[in-house]
Amino acid sequence: MSLIQRVSTIEQTDREPAYGSVKSIRRVISYDAFPPRDEPFEPVHVPIVPAVPAYKVSTSKRLAQVCFTVLACWLASGIVFGFAALKPVLVSVGVYRELCSSKELQAGVEVCYQQDLRLNFFFAIASTTCNVSALAVGTILDRYGPRLCALLGCASLTAGAILMASAFRLPDFDGFVMGNVFLALGGTFIFLPSFQIANAFPKYSGSIVATVTGAFDASAAVFLFYRIAFETSKGAFTPEKFFFAYLAVPALILVAQFTVMSHGNYKSIPELEQKQEKARDVTKDVHSSDDELDDREVRRMRGRRREHRESKLAELDKLIGDRREKARRDQQEAERHAVSGVWGALHGKSASEQMLTPWFILLTLLTVLQMLRMNYFIATIRAQYEYMTGSEHFARQINAFFDIMLPVGGVAATPAIGYLLDSVSTAALLCILVALTTAIGIVGSLPFVWAAYVNVVLFCLLRPLYYSAMSDYATKVFGFQTFGTVYGAIICLSGLVNLFQPAIDAATHDVFHDNPIPINAILTSLGFVFGLMLVMYVIVQGRRIRSLQAEQDETASLLVSIAEDESEYEYSTFR
């Protein structure tokens, strides 16, 4: 093999990553946790309804689809996380009041111990459903497309709303937990397919994804708006009426699926780039059947083929940009990968191998703990600050502030999160996360009103940042080929561990006599230890990856230089 051939082999290896390579080609993210056995690392399935290029659908219709997707996410995707706003309403109408002891009822407590535990379990099981169901929903999405997900989401939301409304109407029917489970499941079916609408306008896909994510955070405000309506109407707008009225949301989504939304997905940017390269190939104007035609007919047919090809190329250039825009986009992507410092660390390895590495284990430990902390705080914020401030009035005000900040913070933080993901190394981003989680743990343990407001603000900024950073870490370290399995496993484990939240509630009440500070201190300490271990590991491995990358680049440059010298020598000898 000549040196030129060896250089060609190296370049091909860079395009198609080998086992453990630090370089990788761009892939379409798949959420499928169960890829076929004959292609264990290939996430892309042939859907029942094939994807279509966005230019085949009018701009106005695609714009309407994006707007409706954002609206559906806002109304349905994460409403169960507005539990802190709904809980006072549930307490006000006496949900699970029958669990209170006669002594507690005589004392006139606002919410008794067993009632509080059951209400918090009501939220914990819904949060777990959101996380665990992502595995199944991702598989359905990849194999059967977004429409089936939307239909299943509508069915789940309808079942959840009916169960919740019936539970309020029928005193002997406890449909609260199952109702909330179906609302959570429906939200996942609506949310997960929403990211693919970004391919409707590939040039603005980043902004669309950020908007969809912001809509998910904002969906927590649905229960906030209801609580305001409940209090304004002095209880006349009952939960039963609200949940029956909420049936309009799945009905709206169902109608839109058959009027506005497309049956299948839009082609992704890599798929469109392949079509673009084919459209630039002038040899496509020539067919083998031309030999059977006379010269005049051949010229006419080739002219028609050229016009069709150039028309398609113009549409594609308008949709995703020409070669200069592609080069600029690739350069930006390469710079982002270089900034991360860990891009391609485990690309090319199987999901099972990746899950045995510290990259996965440390991230999973940190994520499981942080999700448990976040959901514990959402469920118990009012009880925590009622104890620490010694004032029911201040606790109610802090709870109300949190109800507003939870959706607003997610939306407001979106631009800053995008900047951090693109401009800061993964190790630095993890340092920011560890610093924030530790600061929240410290401030959240201070028995002052000002500390409570600071804690709420930090929490509402951390939550969207953590979710975004976790998925960003997964794509950079593990790669797109195994993203669905690895990311889904992390989310699923986090959801299962969240079932221990009622046990933490019980420990707070029974062991620490309603004092949340010891639990917060324990969780903060564990989070700091796990976070510090992950940061140190990423820093060390990042240096190793950069060193290996530099060696590969140096070797490739040397071989190219030798090949050029050999080529010049052969050319001069031939002359």
UniProtKB/TrEMBL annotation:
Residues 272-300 have a biased composition (Basic and acidic residues). Keywords: Membrane, Transmembrane, Transmembrane helix. GO terms for cellular component: fungal-type vacuole membrane. InterPro entries: MFS_trans_sf, SLC43A_AATransporter. It comes from the Eukaryota. The chain crosses the membrane at residues 66-86, 121-141, 148-170, 207-230, 242-260, 359-378, 398-420, 450-466, 478-497, 517-540. Residues 272-309 are annotated as: Disordered. PANTHER family: HYPOTHETICAL AMINO ACID TRANSPORTER (EUROFUNG), PROTEIN FMP42. This is Protein FMP42. It comes from Cryoendolithus antarcticus.
